Amino acid sequence: MNVGFLVFGLAGLLTLVCFMPPLAGRLKLPYSVLLAIVGCLLGIIVHVHGWAPSWIGDFLDSLEHFEISSETFLMVFLPVLLFETALSMNVRRLMDDIGPILMMAIVAVVVCTVVVGVTLDAISPYGMVVCLLLGAIVATTDPVAVVGIFREVGAPKRLTTLVEGESLFNDAASIALYSVLLAVLSGHGELTVSGIFNDFIVHFIGGGLAGFAMGRLACLLFAWLRGFPTAEITLTLTLAYLSFFISEHYLNVSGVVATVIAGLVVGSAGRTRMSPTTFEHLASSWEQFGFWANSLIFLFAAMLIPKLMAAADWQELVLVAVLFVTTLVARAIVVFGLLPLLGMTPLSTKVSNPYKVVMLWGGLRGAVSLALALAVTEQTGVPEEARQFIAVATTGFVLITLFVNGISLRPLIRMLGLNQLSSVERTIRNQALAVALEDLQGKTDEVARTEHIGTEVRDRIRAVFDASLTSVHDGQVSQMSDDQRVAVGLAIVAQREEEMFFDILKAQIVDWRMAEALLARAERLEDAIRLGGIPGFERAIVADVRYSTGFRIALRLHYLFGFQGWLARELGQRFANLMSKRSVAQRLIVFAREQITPLLGEEATQRIVILHQRRLDLIENAMQALNLQYPSYAQWLQESYLGRVAREMERIRYRDMLEQFLISGEVYADLMAQLKSRWAHIDKHPPLDIEMSAAELIKRVPLFEGLSADSLRAISKLLKPRLSLPDQRVLTKGRHGEEMCFVASGAVAVHLPDDTMIELGSGEFFGELGLLGEQQIMPDVTSLGYSKLLMLSSRDFHALLARDENLRERIQLVAKQRLRAIEVWKQFSQANAAPAPAPAPASAPSPAQAAEAAEAAGVSTPSGAGAESAEAARGTPGAGTPQEGVPPGEILGEPGAVPR
């Protein structure tokens, strides 16, 4: 066909499509149904258009000569439809309902295939394989056909997520089954359960891995294209086609799953990797691509309907009706029979009965089913009668779902009340309406006075506001409980937090890696509020300041192998994250006071502020330990943060001057170049030096003072530098006798058996008694900050003492003093625990006597190490003191006498 007429035909179709959405709205028809009607009419008219003027005749001729094959549907239109739907989905919401989604996407396809195959095989002469193939074809659901209806009637977001998620993945399942069964029908395979299962698993999981890899690769490439929005959006378009084609033709896995996963990856991670301008335009661009693809694929598929149905007889039409009923039964088995069983698994999520009814009735079929049926008609290896049956049955079935289910779905949703707001949402709506109308009424009056608008006009406009305000019931907020109001307010603030983090990314105050982590944490906080209310928020803010999984892995590798680079990077990332969170948390408190108070009232706002203040305190406490340990790095972070803010304000100022025509484009470009050069230094990220060299840390331990250089070198080879985090357990009961530790910097807390706590500071050591075989007291030891320790194993400890007599004498002296102190404490504890008359017996020393006994034991530390820490320990808040008797901390807390 002439290229000019091809373009003419496509342009004419797109022009026709432009008027479909408003026409569908006026006719109260689903958009997909109207497309099917128009497509059928075009399919009939193209064969009888001798009456038409020449230009209309040429247009219809071009449509008649379009060669629409199944490969065109699957390769040209399907990747765009899948990618567009996946790109717009919230991955976290998808994962919340991954159980029912996979149930409907995989199990439902298998059930539908089997039920349809067995039923039609019993009443038709076409054979089991043909009937199973038909079942696999009609198992695909069309998201566009049903989600458009959901959006029109205002169906809940979760219901939309369930149906969209099902349709994204069940295409892959049905196409995998379709491929295996078509090969069997063509004589190129055998029908076995294991063969079908293995082929499906390979196709499904392999496609997912391929799509994930290509999606992540695209996200990395976005960094090379930053600043070129058209190139970035083009890359997403090519990704949709490449992920589909490469997976299908080179990797022999599911291209459908690959395209879906690639779209989900770009939708979740891409917004932090792309330039902010690109991501804002990405959704609208793909909405346009999806509109074109969906409209054209429906029109082309519907144009084939008259041709496919032309040879249908009444027996085949009866089988179509049986097929429709059978698929409903199969879907009901899954929705009402198998979904409740999901509650017995970790994937359980409750799906209400109204949702189940809509999911049952909303399984509309569309272009994908027609494309698969068309592909069967193109297979010469399939018997003619089988091709005819599959084409007629699929076409008739698609028409029934569109015209019966599609037209009745909207009334069904309204009848079940799924398009209505909940009582809480209605209350919030009315309160928001009242706040907005009161504010707008005042601003409208001000505009009227400024513009000298007449009193009569102002009164009429004011009457509109007054009538609307009167319709809002006073005191609606009071219909919610206090906890409900606080939970609603926390959810609003959480959504605002996510936007703030995205604004920080757009302002280039943080890089994409940090933005990705911050946005993920904000989404988790919002989920915690949605699922757990106030208690969920309280748990989430505690979890928010915990160390990430990557950090814990890096710390574990550091303890096992001494690796420091990854740990240093994770520490620096945590430092920067906490600083960004602190900045946002401070602004969120201001936001709550200014915006939430008019909406939810003073009392609820105050509770929200208190909860967020507690969160801010947790962040401050987590930062304080880092600030004290790494003051230089903290100073650089503050400089970098302030410099990035200043750079963004300068950039905005120049852009405003350009938009107001105060400067020319050339001047603007020069100013931006100077800006980039001026602030280049703030993007240079210095590494966090955690100073973990054994040779350097040994110098901080007084016990090693005076040793020869050879001895120090030998010791440095045995000691393993380790970093301990705040509240991390350093030496637990199960590890006594395996190693001892020297505190090079920082402090640790020794938790004694009577619940008292003693603090050890720089230069002190603990664990030596266990290595000497004296395990009379085995306390837990935790780090009080970011402490730098030197660890010595049992084997190296004994080798070290055998090698250096001077060091052995020093350690043994401290050990003897500590053992003597332990004996004094034991005697005192036993005497104090026995029943005693008023005058204390001689065997039960008084606290003063016990203290004197400890002093008489000659308890001291070489070089006076630890005196300062022990003094701090006795004044440490939180050190427990039993009501009766004297705790061991007071006896053993003399300088150097604490059992470490």
TrEMBL record:
The keyword S-adenosyl-L-methionine does not apply. Residues 834-900 are annotated as: Disordered. It comes from the Bacteria. Residues 845-873 have a biased composition (Low complexity). Residues 703-810 form the Cyclic nucleotide-binding domain. InterPro entries: Cation/H_exchanger_CPA1, Cation/H_exchanger_TM, cNMP-bd_dom, cNMP-bd_dom_sf, RmlC-like_jellyroll. It is a multi-pass membrane protein. Keywords: Cell membrane, Ion transport, Membrane, Sodium, Sodium transport, Transmembrane, Transmembrane helix, Transport. Gene3D superfamilies: 6.10.140.1330, Jelly Rolls. Its main location: membrane. The keyword Transmembrane helix applies. It is found in: Cell membrane. The chain crosses the membrane at residues 6-24, 31-52, 72-89, 101-120, 126-147, 168-188, 200-225, 250-269, 289-305, 317-338, 358-377, 389-409. This is Cation:proton antiporter. It comes from Achromobacter veterisilvae.
